[in-house]
Protein 1
Amino acid sequence: MVISQETMDIDFVRKVEALSDTSVRRCFQCGKCSAGCPMATFMEHPPNRVVRLLQLGQWRRIIEGRSIWYCASCETCSTRCPNKVHLASIMDALRKLSWDADGPSKESYVQLANKLFLQNIRTYGRQYEMRLAAVFNVKSGQFLKDLMLGPKLLAKGKLKMFHSKNKNMTEIEKIFSRIEEMRKKGEAL
Amino acid sequence: MTQPHIMEYSYYPGCSLHASAGEYDLSTRELFKVLGIGLTEIPDWFCCGATPAHNVDELLSLSLCAKNLELADQIAGDVAVACAACFSRLKTAQHVLGENDVKRKQVEKAIDAPVKLNSNVKHLLDILAHDLGLERLAAAAKKPLAGLKVACYYGCLLTRPTDVPNLDCVEAPTIMERVVEAVGAETVVWTHRLECCGANFTLSRPGVVIQLTNAILDSAKAAGADCIMVGCPLCHGNLDIRQKEIEGVYKTDYNLPVFYLTQLVGLAAGLGPDQLGLDAMIVNPLPLLKEKNLL
Amino acid sequence: MSRIGVFICHCGENISRTVDVERVAKEIGTRPGVSFSTDYKYMCSDPGQNLLKKAIQEQKLTHVVVAACSPRMHEKTFRKAVEAAGLNPFLCEMANIREHCSWVHENIEEATAKAIEIVAMMVERVKKNRVLPTITVPVTKRSLVIGGGIAGIQAALDIADCGHEVILVEREPSIGGHMAQLSETFPTLDCSQCIMTPKMVDVANHPKIKLYTYSEIELVEGYIGNFQVTIKKKARSVDEDKCTGCGVCMTKCPQKKIPNKFDMNIGMRTAIYVPFPQAVPNTPVIDRDNCTKFKTGKCGVCQKVCGPGAVDFEQEDQLIVEAVGAIVVATGFDLYSIAEKPKGSPIKGYGEFGHGKIPDVIDGMTFERLASASGPTGGKILRPSDGKEPKQIVFIQCIGSRAREKGISYCSKVCCMYTAKHTMLYHHKVHDGQAYVFFMDARTPGKSYDEFWRRSIEEEEAVYIRGMVSRLYQKGDKIVVMGSDIAVGVQVEIEADMVVLATAIQPQQGADSLAQKLGISYDKYHFYSEAHAKLRPVECATAGIYLAGACQGPKDIPETVSQASAAAAKVMTLFSKDKLEREPIVARVREAGCVGCLACKKVCAYGAIEEKEIRDRQGNLIKVVAYVNPGVCAGCGTCQATCPSKSVELDGYTDEQIVAMIEAL
């Protein structure tokens, strides 16, 4: 791989900085974030390398990769960064841009879980764990995943058959729709 | 005749407390009843979005939280939050919307209402340690938890990131220890009290949780803890629900019951197992509690 | 009738790009009183100044206005040129049409119109200027040096060797500072005390150096050439004249377990002590807070065994006033600690490293004391917790430094080098030991520095890992260090026996209060501010006070010694004259109008105003008026603004001059 001026999209960096409200440029690659990241061993690019690729405008590799989807949002990186680079927000921004690009990312399970979680909120106003777990298993083709846990949790009352009721469900649908409208009109990133 | 409440709070339980973390909700209500603290559940609250929302759509996350804060504003008192994730999201929304005018305007458009940031959002630990105070807490402990060694597990979101939750010192917090020691328990010094359990990956990538949560259980056991105390439903789920699975993968035996903070404090305050939802715990706590004469 | 010469400078393109200088010159030339008006490319240059001098002589100019840059840049330059041409320098004023005009505007029309107004203002002002004769003040040719570390010692020796008396004041019982604590120094690995103690002894023996140890500065009054400094000599409880330094008292003292600050609290000392064997002066001090006699009234063994009878429990602190002409500040540095800081502090500690509570996590200076042959372990590298020899040491760079999250943005300059040195000392002493260094960059700019650093990696086998450490914690008797290597892109976890942190260099405790006593500026970190970062690095904005060493900013020994000699040279420049010339911009009281309300005295920040009695020939008191001491007055003008009867005037900035400027607009 050779990086040249043509492949460096610095404009993308500005978009990420605007979305995340922090500076990507401040990172001087000390590696403290990667040192403390609980998920670094699962990522192809540890956090400091994600920022480095971003600084070099190599956004495609990040968006299409799975590293950002393995971030646990534990906020350790942001807390310990000596330069106040809010890495967790940068990860959120990158995930959003990857989510919007809809497709090329290699990490499908995590994206599926997020999608189903948000769909449930849109429909029910509150999370419906039973449905979330069940639909995830079906859609990811892992029918037997956590199967043994199911009956035990039901018996202990931890898995509720029905979702928690909220009388204001139309309100939540309106919030989702308004946000979609704003994005269509370019009023929000 | 019921005593008047010494304090009043609006209560944001969050989705888990109405489902898989029902015992956290139950023990919280029962404990606060005994302590004489009023909790009024916010009517028709929404999911705060937890991690999936801010992970892919910050505007949605901020809007959901802003909406909930608007609903909370209609009830007197500070907002009491039990779940660490909900606490983190609400505090983050206040922090971000308080400083970023552009995002604030977008959120106001999305929720079609003004953004209200004046509510004080407090985690139960804050309420117990500061509003109630450790002295009154100690006085309420009719059956102190003598001889129980507790590993206090903070997880990620109670203290991080700096300047958002403002619950306690970010790297060396002591609020959990102070609360549980006030009701007579012993706490252990252990290495993994701020390490991540893997959180959300329990659904999509459980292998991650197995690895990370194992390290936490191992550290607690090595420090001589009898049990672990948490303030987050997701951490609880990973540590409790998946404990047997982890023991199988790593060929170890932990047998560490995982209590919610209100269950332990409630136990000390004299509440019984049914009021605390102890039967909902996957790793059975009863043998331990019987052994320590705490039932 | 005035014959004012006006000179408009182009300043290359700096002014002429935005201001039509030729038009300005032409416009001003038509003003009454102006007999010569021209423009020139570079007024401050040699030909420019010659143009000025020539015009004064040929045109018989009575006043001069140079319209150019800020007076802070070149007022001195032009006044000197004007003086050389035979005109009183205070009849020359500058009109700032650069910083105040061409540099801050873009529209040429408007900028030119503004420039014309600015020059017109100064033309009207200069008409009211009076000839001001130079004021001279005597110079006391004695110097005060605050701080007895290598910087203070070097400055003191340089000044004393020129034949001028030096008063050297040191807070600790002995001089030597931090350099005396070091084991070997980079890049040559010289033994630090071996190269320093001869200088310390020179100071003690020098006929021109008066040494006050265990003393602090209490009060500073006066001004350049004429300071009065009150020194508090704390009670040693030992008579310096009688003590022979035999040391018997220390061997008999029953309190033997007091942590010794010199040994970074891992070595112990007695209550009556010298901080280290080569201390200068070799006179002990009694630590009254920990001494049995002072705490309970019992004991007193040291007094009993002292042959010359030097121990004096009744000794009290003394206040001594010394008159000096110059002050060199050489108070040095302190190391940042990772301990938890109080709430609201701008600097944070490292909770992720245990807040300093893990005993085998130490800082660089503690490592130096372990490595030092005269240290608490006799030069053996041993763990403070159990005294065992560590076989795996992790060194971590940039602790506190370069971390705006922790409140310190700067680089501490010396740590890359001393950590490399530490790996070498460790390798020399523990042949089967392994050193790991977590670092970000290697800053090795000095002579032979980079080669020294490379030696650590290539010959002494230290493993350098480019990446920082997120956290470290105690596990059994090891310390688990969680770091990363950013080149490979992996996490690096090391179970170490000892961790050495390269902590940031900060100014000494109390640097801010000393600065306030001296009246010098300091930055947000409390490092003392030099007058000009590039061109005046050893002087303060406050005249007569000079800076040397780490109190001005982190630096290594060669730089410290250079700066100390430089400060001494500046002091010598001051002492080379018998009288000091000072700017005559001073306030003057018109005694006829003064009613003696002394409001001016209350508002004078410099203490320059005194009461003066006016008596008749019979000696009867007529009235008391205010009097401005022209030596102390700093020319701020506050008295002029305060005086209700308009009886105080600031020469060079009178109300008349200011009003003329306003009316010209």
Note: Chain B touches chain A through 59 residues (CB under 8 Å).
Protein 2
Amino acid sequence: MGFSSVKDMVDKMEAGQTLTSFFRKHTSQQSEWAGNWYDTASYRGMPLPLIYYGTDLEATLLNYRSVGGLYHGENVAPATKHIYKVSAFSSTSNANPCHLILCDYLMFYPEIETNSIAVQNFTNPVTIPRYTTGEGVKAFLVYTSEAGILPQKVRVTYTNSQGVTGRCLGRMPAITMAGSPLVPGIPGLIMTGGAWSGTLQAPHNHGVFLPLAEGDTGIQSVQNIQFNTPSGISSQAALVLCKPLCSVAFNNAFAMSERNYWMHLPSLPRVMDGAYLAFLRYGGSASVGSLIWGQLDVVWG
Amino acid sequence: MGFTSLDDLMRKVSSGNTYRCDWQRMTPDFGAGVVGSWADSYVAGGGNPIAGHGTMGGHGNIVKNATLESYNDWNPSPDWTIYDDINNYTALRHPIGQTSSIWQTIPLISGVSYTISYVLANTSGSGSITLDLGGT
């Protein structure tokens, strides 16, 4: 559906077809490294943490109705729901600067053993519940236990958004933490292949989302994963498929940063019915137990 | 086409006519950038999307399935040894002086020029290398 005009959206808002939802998250009690990405779904706070529970290596769906995530209201079909504004700030200085990407988490593959170099085959009894073609769907790897202590490279084979099987990462990204020397990490750490502040930079470092093979623009499902060397300790990770929706960043404690997705950046990202919403966080400084607050405003019509 | 009005823009974006692309680039790790200079982030730095390979060129000269840098995808004859060096490049070693081959199946794109780079190291005696491009 959407909106036929600016007045139409304003009319819908005045008619009550809008919702404001609040969130509050704690960064880890262990020191996080500047320059790494973290999964706030794993953080304590509100909404409750996501522990990526499921059958080993089996595709597991994420849906607000069954799992939780940031509340965004009831299902609205045949209307469509859109993000009108995202706001965030920290009440502690060591959480700044910070960049957040709001994503719709679609599906994950749990209990990947990072200390193994064997091919770990995934099973796919279900398919992604939203963005079903896979167009625009990204993947990230997140530790669900204490992170490994040794640099690794990884190979992932997937089916792209055209339905072509056997696609694989453009190259094997290094899985290392920023900072030197390497130290055991924490749950919620996303494997990014290093970051700007690290000494382990290399041309293959890829950032929060795993790169895709040349020409691919999304992922439908993932078939297997393999590490080239053990991670040094037994650690578990989950491979998560998600759809990035919008971003917000903040720089100073108690200074709320707001992004209006009509007035500032006219794009009105859509939130699908049943979406599991959570933020990916890029930390610009070492933080311990920092608080991140914010709100999400949606409108539907 | 463009947009006829603000209302038209509202209508288009709320019906899904938008696209988001997340990217990450890194400045080169092999030397400091020069103040006042421009740099080509595609070739120089790593990140997502994948940079052009430093020794293989860039700007589209990436094999479409992009698996040349994974040692798992090569199909060697028995006298080859394949290993992955610290730079994440596929490295190939032929321990004995006989004719042998190593190959992989990759889809090539019509009209695109490809570059093959190789390095000979720790060699003895003499020989030659032949590069073949073929297929069905």
Note: Chain A touches chain B through 51 residues (CB under 8 Å).
Protein 3
Amino acid sequence: MINALLWAPLAFGLVGLFLPKRAVGWWATLGAVVTLTIAVVMVFDFDSGSSGLQHSVDTPWISGLGVDYSLGIDGLNLFLVVLTALLWVGGTAFAAFREWERPQLFYLLMLLAETATLGSFLAQDLLLFVLFFDFMLVPFYFLFGAWGSDREGGPSASAATLKMMIYTLIGSLLMLVGAIAAAIISADGGHLTFSIAAIQQQGLDVDSQRWIFWFFAAAFLVKMPAFLLHGWMPDAYRAAPLPVLVVFSGVLAKVGAYGFLRVVLPIFPDATVEFQEVILVIALASILYGSVMAFTQTNVRLIAGYSSVAQLGFITAGIFALRADGADGAILQMVNHGLVVAPIFIIVAILVERTGTEDIREMGGMALRAPVLAALFLIVALATLAMPGSANFIGEFYILNGLFQEKVVFACIAITGVAMSAYYALRLYQHAMHNRLPDGIASREIGLRDAVVLAPLVLCILGLALYPQLILHRTAPTVQQTVANVTGGDAPEAELAKR
Amino acid sequence: MNFNEPTIDYAGISPIIALTVGLCVVLLSAVFKPVKRWAPALTLLTLAAAAGLLIWQWGESKELVAGALRIDDLAITISLIAILTAAFCVVLSTREPAAEETGSGEYHALLLGSVLGMVLLAEAQNLVSFFVAIETLSIPLYVLCAANLRREGSLESGLKYLIVGSLGSATLLYGMAFLYGGSGSTDFLGIAAGTAHGGLIDDPLILVGIGMCAVGLAFKTSIAPFHQWTPDVYEGAPTPITSFMAVATKAAAFAVFLRFFDVALGPQVDQWQPALAVLAAVSIVVGNVGALGQDSLKRMLGYSGVAQAGYMLGGIVVASESGVNALVFYLAAYAFMNLAAFAVIIARERETPFGDDIRGVRGLGAERPLLAWPLTIAMLALAGLPATAGFIGKLYLIEALVEADYTWLAVFIAVGTMISLAYYLRVVAAMWMRPEGEPAATPVIAGASPEADPIDPEAGRRIYLVGPALVAAAATIFFGVIPQPLVEFAERAGASLF
């Protein structure tokens, strides 16, 4: 079943190449829906008591090099897989309502990107993980470059994506070297294997951990992106076609954060403890910088983009609190953030279609004639600023709780980020929806077709707000074990998770 | 006086015999009008026969001709790569102006002569046969580079290659003389025995000899700083010949590089290892930086070849079985990636007035998807992105390097790859992302005058150009997803040397 989950999108995409132009968008959406269905079935099939891998597949792939085709699901990736499948349904369906040049190719790349992303979440072999992690970029490179928009006075779409590729591959290629080094050093002349579990078991000496840790951290921090490594983000976000940005922003950043949980914590426990504070500083810097940028930018895409930088800072801080509740909160927050940022980009796309501008200073007054759109937007905006009652609130609370018990000072600074998120989320909402309607812009209600895409995502936000235990309950055992591995077995239990 | 006639293993040298006979037949066919146009077919037949005989010898490991040559799996794998490339080159040369101007028979006979040199080189086990083979390989190539008689660039390329190549050969020969003087033997195993007693530093004669041999080989494999001829010669030579040179010459030269350093100088490994590692690092940097901003695709691939040679040299630096495996795997992958790229360049060269300029591929994605895909795959594979053979090749090399404690060189490969994205993806972007450029006004490449190379507007649909491009691109993807067969192929080579 896990194979079907991974390869279904690609299979649909390939078949789509031979379909007529008008049908291919719906065919692609069907592919995404099928994938989502499989993912949801897996949630019901999931044994929430176990911390080990489920549905795992493990066969040798390149036996000469010790690389296995090894996939599995556990508490760390279960809901990220579901999130991926869900957002791809949203992004693909939203795209299907619109016209694209060379649609067969567009949807093939879109679904190829889904397979690659799912692959990096599911991979249990270090090299397979690196492979999918790098490969994710290829379809997005084409999607951004060929279907993106050139900016007046700025870099062209292809230049912006080239920058993105070079930035992100800097980290990824070093990660490839690091992965190979980790496997060889841990094998110590014995049987070479890239299985994450095996490398974890064999262990690495502290000196090797130190430098390999940074090779991996570089890859993940660029992908998120974290402060100082985010240089590719503004140009790429402005160039990207919006339906693609929905999935890109919603899921790809999470792969970086997930990488810390899946690879870094298990394989480099000593280095993780040693560099905990360095990463926390980077995370805090991301929170502050992202927030400040988000409330000074006027381009709607960049507001959402920089808010992601801040949110990913929170998630990183949660992971590097090195406590079970912090990490639990981080996973919950990854899903939450994906669920809010995707609707924001869909709403942004709708707004841009109506106003013809991406500048919030030229928007406004939408709410008057479009109450439904405004209501949906309001829910999303409130979730973004982690209003009590939303799942984001619970996620941030867990993260801060974990951080507070471990590093008080860091927690205090991080809390300012929560306050700032209220400002930028409400600013975005107000400028777009309230105020006076500028001349020459027609306010129209959201169309039924876009509502069909948007409403389910908003329903998921609401659903999760009511029942976050859906996620927490299933992730807790694995997270507990992952964190315990770093801190040496006496990980403080997540009191909240038991509540 | 006793004269011991060497016993000759005819089965072992049968591929060489086949190539020699084929060469003569193809050359003679040029004289007889009725069979003249069969030269390409005869060449392909010869190559097929040689390949068949090589596969028949698969798994053998024996000395031939009194130890001057040695047939083993390393020689066979490398020879097969060279023969495969030559076969592609023959197909891609269909209606090539260069082949028609030189005369089809002569052109193909020269090509076979060069292949013969490569097979000999891959089997060379003795300084004398080594040198004879490298000249057999090179001299036909000097002529072939200048085969496009009416194009100034081609003649210039031939002359330049002749001069620089001769310099390389002379250096090599001089180095061999020193080596013979120092070790008392021309045989690789004899050299190993003769130098085993002391370090290189103790014997300046041998040290100089090895240095000069390394320089000579670096010329042939276009490793920086001995690469200056590469971009110019690549650009000027007829493109099918460029593709042949880029892949097959490199493969054969690396084979002898391996044998020379791992067998003859095996005992001295600690002494030459750091020097070669530095050479590899320099080559990676120089090649990748040089390729940035090149508008001519052939020049760009020339510089990229310098960088790739640097990666591959890593396989020799480590002096281990996995290093040989990695190198042979990379060479095979490199063959497919480059052939796909060159096939598309040839098609565009004949189809547009831009020659091999990057403007020739603008908007290719919309105009000729069947050409755009192979070139895209080739570029992504050369850049080492996953799901292509190029990624597995890099993975293999890095694994070998890390195993041998040369992690810093692996980091160089990673950094070099990063730089390389800028120029490989520029080609991809030109194909898929930029709108069609201004209509072609004048041809831009010097020497590509329309009289010399008539434009064939249908070249992008010719099966003899599109077919090889698709086959090579498909192989690149196939071995990126299912690398096991190629890994096993490469492992045979490594096992035969260690």
Note: Chain A touches chain B at residues 61-65, 67, 102, 127, 131-132, 134-135, 137-138, 141-142, 145-146, 156-158, 161-162, 165-166, 169-170, 173-174, 176-177, 180-181, 184 (CB under 8 Å).
